[in-house]
Amino acid sequence: MTFTQHLIHKYQHEWRQTQQHPFVQELGQGTLERSKFRFYMIQDYLYLVDYAKLFALGAIKAPDVKTMSEFSASLSNILHEEMGIHRSYAARFGITKEELEHAEPSPITLAYSHYMLHVAQNGGLAELTAALLPCMWSYWEIGRMLQEIPGAVDHPDYGEWVRAYSSEEFGQHAEWCITLMDRLAVGKSESDLARLETIFLNTTRYETMFWEMAYRQQMWL
Ligand SMILES: Cc1ncc(CN)c(N)n1
Q1: Domains of the chain
Q2: What GO biological process, any one, is recorded here (predicted)?
Q3: Cα(146)–Cα(133) distance, rounded to whole angstroms?
C-alpha cells in the first residue's frame, strides 16, 4: 500500500465527509442556493490567493529543477486558470472586482489558509505537500463524483465548476501531487510519517469546515 492509499484508508471517515457535505451534494444536484455559492466563490478566491503562495514556497523548497518547474507551472495554473473560473463566476453572480479584491476572509478561511502557510513555511517539502494533498485530491474526487450526476456538467450555474474540477487537466495536477507525496514519503521515519499524517488529517478536516462555512454563509457565529 502506498502512503497516500494508507492515508485515505486510515482517514476514510474524514475523507468521505468532504464528499458528502450538503454543499457538495446540492451543487451536484443543481439545488444549491445561489447566495451560498456566491458566498463560497468570494471566500474561495481569498483562499486561493494564499493557496497559490504555497506553490511558490514549494518551488523554493524543491530539491531539483524538475520539481521546481512543476510547482511553478501549478502556481501559474492557479493564478490564471483556477482563479479565472472565480473571476468568470464573479461576473455572472454580480460580484464586482472591488468586492472580490476587498472582501474580508472569514475566520475559517483565515484559519485554513494560514495553517497551510504555517506548515509550508516551517516544514520541508513533504510537509508542504501533505498540506496541499487534500485540497487537490478531494476536489478532483468531488469533480469526478458530481460529473456522474445527470445534468450536473450542463447546469447553467454550476456546470462550469463541475467541468473544471472533473477535467483531465485538473486530474493531472491532482495525480502529480499524489505521486509527489508518495515519493517524498519513501524512507521517512515513523515519527516523520506520523507528522505528515496529522497535517493531511488537519487539512482534510479544514476542507469539510470550509464547505460548512460556505453552506451557512458564516462569517461569524
Ligand atoms: C477550499 C479549497 N480547497 C481546494 C481547492 C482546490 N484548489 C479550492 N479551490 N478551495
Answers
A1: 3-216 (1.20.910.10)
A2: thiamine biosynthetic process
A3: 20
